[in-house]
Amino acid sequence: MERYLQSEIKEAEQNIDDLEQSVYKLQKSTGNKAQEFVCVKTSQKIIASTKSFVSTIQTKTEAKVSFSADMKIKNYLKQQKVLGQVSTAKATYTPRTTAYKVKQKRDIDIKLKEDKTTCNIYGSCFTEDGSLLLADLNNDKLKRLDVSTDTIIDHLDLEDRPIDVCLTRKQEAAVSLNNKTIQFVSLGNKMATTRKLKMDHHCYGLAFNDGKVFISNEFKTVYIHDISGAMLHKITNDKFGKPVFTYSRH
User: Fold this and answer.
1) In terms of pLDDT, which residue wins out, 123 or 90?
2) Residue 186 near residue 171 (C-beta atoms within 8 A)
């Protein structure tokens, strides 16, 4: 029955398509009497075919389906007091001691030839293509790591020490700098600095969500700015006036 119904639907859709094509051709042939005549005749044939198809659907009767229960099964079930037994087994539960479980760890050399000192990574984030952005505080650089080959494939010199980095769009990241600046970076084949926002507070941890930039100041405040830099809100105390944070970092 389902296959038969699907066949009817397909045929109905074809009829609709044919009728729409007829209307289009008729409109297109306006002014050309010979073409109009041909289109009208073709349309009449399609309409007649469609009417015939509709009448066959309307005259069909549904099959009557009935079900008779097997009395042997019915009588057997009547004799049973229960359908089964429910039992419980004491489960052993070991509470987790950490929020995450380490799947893998390995040493990766991210130092470049031009680096003047030991690399110091405070912040990192993954990009849309799976590479890893690293904020190298000591060398004033943003580095891009290919995690499949463990190699630095690109780097960008910054005006001050970068602390944290987060993705703002598919091809854009934001970096918090030690000089109270949020530096935006385009993530093309080669990274490049674009616009920047000067803040009146220290910028440490950085996150982006729903068009808003969340910035911690490494002390007792988290600031919320819009993408243009205007401050929307800051979180310092709870509803009782007590500090929420001690050292607001990442």
Assistant:
1) 123
2) yes
The structural domains of the chain, with segments of one domain joined by +, span: 2-58, 121-235
Q: Residue 123 pairs with which residues in a beta bridge? A: 135
Give the mean pLDDT of the chain: 89
Nearest to 230 by CA among 205, 200, 208: 200
Place of tokens 């993408």: 227
- Burial class of 138 by CB neighbour count within 10 A (0 to 12, 13 to 18, 19+): middle
Angle at 134 (CA atoms; ends 96, 223), nearest 5 degrees = 75
Q: Does the model's pTM come out above 0.90?
A: no
Buried b / exposed e over 141-161, threshold 16 CB at 10 Å, is bbbbbeeeeeebebbbebeeb
Query: How are beta strands 181-187 and 151-157 bridged, if at all?
Result: unpaired
Task: State the average pLDDT over residues 188-211.
Answer: 95
> Which of 2.130.10.10, 1.20.1420.30, 3.30.930.10, 2.40.10.220 would CATH assign to domain 121-235?
2.130.10.10
**Cα dist from 235 to 9, 209, 212, 241, whole Å:** 60, 16, 14, 11
Owner of token pair 């970076």: 185
Listed residue (226, 216, 205) closest to 124, CA to CA: 205
The SS3 assignment for 144 reads: strand
CA-to-CA separations, 194 to 4, 24, 99, 169, 186, in angstroms, rounded:
62, 52, 36, 13, 7
